[in-house]
């Protein structure tokens, strides 16, 4: 469809330092993105500017330097660590005689490689088409744009207009499919809410160790690797938490600074699991020099998807890579866990994490001494399933005398299903 140079595996990276904090990117992060995409970096061109150049983004001299680096290293793609306009990409490709990608296109390419599920592939394609729709002006440079002439009088629209119409139709089709998937997810969420099953969502900067932690605390075999965006498709698993009962743990896509808005919009159905969660486990790579900056970037994305008000428990991961830090729990002035220090890879501190999750989710525990008649065998069985019975005796009439300890949520549910339950309570609720 497009008269474009083929992308290869040898890349020249371009990183420009700007005086403005908002425009700053990280060169090390670009190198990790390129590595995650399966591309070899053969040269890095750096420079500094106050503002981007309108024609080449970099100055004309720096643009010539990039073109020389492409020739010298026989590179076949130039990757900018910044967002380029369609005109800047076109001008740079004409100068360098090779494909030029910006940061957004690179991230989209990585997402396209990682997508495995039907929903994930649709979301990535939607983001790619939205990004592509702004770059259609670059296509079809070798064809007549206007249909005409004897026997060729068509709808009277230019080739560019035809492309835009086809893109709009495809985007509309994908949105309809995603809407159907979103409704299916919503049904699952409503079912969990009716059953009062809490959801815990893993969030954090990309490559913070979310999938490794997810595999550690569940029986899942989610793909985990030391690379950016190793996880793309969301995974849900059942998790049993003491004094809480069954919960759902959700592994989600990692965030990154300046995450393309098209991606955030495309992945809203997936990120809804984060929005509706009862607790967010914010996984942080404590060995990273940019810890505070990464936390800030995650908060910005959470604000964008409306999940900033969901309670968070900070999980400081990879303590095995930092000298002098032991697994422990940090608490606030009221004794509530706010931060847990662990190493998911080395299986260190996981028990501290589970205890902190239990404290954050369990809330009030109900302790009761109850007497059940012999006809209440079904209720007794359910109490055993909840692991709520701490002691059991039987009186002369065959009644069961039970000491139970159960979360307030489970107790309220039992009282709703068994009308006779409040009548058999012999003691007051205690925390």
UniProtKB/TrEMBL annotation:
Q: Name one GO cellular component term.
A: cytoplasm
Binding of Mg(2+) occurs at 211, 231
| Localisation | Cytoplasm
Q: What are the entry keywords?
A: Cytoplasm, GTP-binding, Magnesium, Metal-binding, Nucleotide-binding
Q: Which Gene3D superfamilies match?
A: 6.10.250.2860, GTPase HflX, N-terminal domain, P-loop containing nucleotide triphosphate hydrolases
Q: What region holds the Hflx-type G domain?
A: 198-365
Query: Carries keyword Mitochondrion?
Result: no
Q: Which residues bind GTP?
A: 204-211, 229-233, 251-254, 317-320, 343-345
Pfam families reported in the protein's UniProt record: GTP-bdg_M, GTP-bdg_N, HflX_C, MMR_HSR1
**Cofactor requirement:** Mg(2+)
Location (main, coarse): cytoplasm
Keyword check for tRNA-binding? no
Q: Which GO terms describe its molecular function?
A: GTP binding; GTPase activity; guanosine tetraphosphate binding; metal ion binding; ribosome binding
Q: Which domain of life is it from?
A: Bacteria
Tell me which InterPro entries the record gives: EFG_III/V (IPR035647), G_HFLX_dom (IPR030394), GTP-bd (IPR006073), GTP-bd_M (IPR032305), GTPase_HflX (IPR016496), GTPase_HflX_N (IPR025121), GTPase_HflX_N_sf (IPR042108), HflX_C (IPR045498)
Q: Please describe the quaternary structure of this protein.
A: Monomer. Associates with the 50S ribosomal subunit.
Per the similarity annotation, which family is this?
A: Belongs to the TRAFAC class OBG-HflX-like GTPase superfamily. HflX GTPase family.
Reported function: GTPase that associates with the 50S ribosomal subunit and may have a role during protein synthesis or ribosome biogenesis.
Q: Which NCBIfam families match?
A: GTP_HflX, PRK11058.1
Task: Please report the name of this protein according to its UniProt entry.
Answer: GTPase HflX
Protein source organism = Celerinatantimonas diazotrophica
């Amino acid at each position: 469809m497009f008269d474009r140079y083929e992308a290869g595996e040898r890349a020249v990276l371009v990183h420009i330092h700007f005086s403005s904090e908002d425009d700053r990117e990280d060169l090390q992060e670009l190198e990790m993105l390129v590595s995650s995409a399966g591309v070899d970096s053969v040269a890095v061109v750096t420079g500094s500017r106050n503002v981007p150049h309108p024609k080449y983004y970099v100055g004309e001299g720096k643009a010539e330097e990039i073109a020389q680096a492409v020739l010298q290293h026989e590179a076949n793609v130039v990757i900018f660590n910044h967002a380029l306009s369609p005109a800047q990409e076109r001008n740079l490709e004409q100068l360098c005689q090779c494909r030029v990608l910006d940061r957004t296109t690179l991230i989209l390419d990585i997402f396209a490689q990682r997508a495995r599920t039907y929903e994930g592939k649709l979301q990535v394609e939607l983001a790619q088409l939205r990004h592509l729709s702004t770059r259609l002006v670059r296509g079809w440079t070798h064809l007549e744009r206007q249909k005409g002439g004897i026997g060729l009088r068509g709808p009277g629209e230019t080739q560019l207009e035809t492309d835009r119409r086809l893109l709009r139709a495809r985007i509309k089709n994908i949105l309809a499919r995603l809407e159907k998937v979103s409704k299916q997810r919503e049904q699952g969420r409503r079912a969990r809410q009716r059953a009062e099953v809490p959801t815990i969502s893993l969030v954090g900067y990309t490559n913070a160790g979310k999938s490794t932690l997810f595999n550690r605390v569940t029986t899942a075999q989610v793909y985990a690797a030391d690379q950016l965006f190793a996880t793309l498709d969301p995974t849900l698993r059942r998790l049993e938490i003491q004094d809480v009962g069954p919960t759902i743990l959700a592994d989600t896509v990692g965030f990154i600074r300046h995450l393309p808005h098209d991606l955030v919009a495309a992945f809203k159905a997936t990120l809804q699991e984060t929005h509706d969660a009862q607790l967010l486990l914010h996984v942080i790579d404590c060995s990273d020099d940019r810890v505070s900056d990464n936390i800030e970037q995650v908060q910005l994305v959470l604000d964008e998807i409306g999940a900033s008000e969901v309670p968070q428990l900070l999980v400081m991961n990879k303590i095995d890579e930092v000298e002098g830090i032991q697994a422990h729990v940090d608490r606030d002035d009221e004794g509530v866990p706010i931060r847990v220090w662990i190493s998911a890879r080395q299986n260190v501190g996981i028990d501290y994490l589970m205890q902190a999750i239990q404290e954050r989710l369990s809330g009030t525990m109900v302790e009761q001494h109850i007497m059940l008649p012999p006809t209440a065998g079904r209720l007794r069985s359910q109490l055993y399933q909840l692991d709520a019975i701490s002691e059991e005796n039987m009186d002369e009439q065959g009644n069961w005398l039970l000491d139970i300890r159960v979360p307030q949520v489970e107790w309220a549910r039992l009282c709703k299903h068994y009308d006779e339950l409040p009548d058999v309570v012999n003691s007051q609720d205690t925390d």
